[in-house]
Specification:
six-stranded antiparallel sheet, 6 strands, 115 residues, single chain, mainly beta, 1 helix
C-alpha cells in the first residue's frame, strides 16, 4: 500500500507541475513537524509532503501523505493531511487537518511584518 501511495503521489505531482493551464501557481510543500525539549530531546514527528495550488488572490490549498514517526523514529503509519489558507495585508489564517483514528482539525491565525 505504501508503494502505491508513493507512486500515486508522484504521478499527481508530475501532472500538476506539467500543467500550464492554471493562472495561479502549483507548488510542492514538504514539511516536518516535531518537538524538541531540553529534558526529552527530539520527540515524535510528522513528515508532510503536500502538493498545492495558490490562487491569484493569495488563497491556497494543499494536500498529501503524512508519515507519522513516534519517539522511537520508526515510521508508524501514513495518513492524509492538508491545509487551506489566505492572507490579507499582514494577517493570515490557515485551516489544517490530518486523518487517523480521529480526524484532527487545527486553526492558525497570525501576522507577518516585513522590514
Amino acid at each position: 500500500m505504501i508503494k502505491r501511495l508513493v507512486v500515486s503521489g508522484a504521478v499527481v505531482t508530475a501532472a500538476a507541475l506539467a500543467s500550464p493551464a492554471f493562472s495561479g501557481q502549483v507548488f510542492v510543500n514538504p514539511e516536518i513537524n516535531t518537538s524538541v525539549g531540553t529534558d526529552s530531546g527530539v520527540g515524535a514527528a510528522i513528515l508532510e509532503t503536500h502538493v498545492g495550488y495558490e490562487f491569484d488572490n493569495g488563497a491556497y490549498v494543499q494536500v498529501g501523505p503524512a508519515a507519522i514517526f513516534p519517539d522511537d523514529g520508526e515510521m508508524e503509519d501514513i495518513e492524509i493531511s492538508g491545509k487551506a489558507g489566505i492572507g490579507s495585508g499582514p494577517l493570515y489564517g490557515e485551516l489544517s487537518f490530518i486523518t487517523g483514528e480521529e480526524t484532527t482539525v487545527g486553526v492558525k491565525i497570525g501576522s507577518k511584518f516585513t522590514f
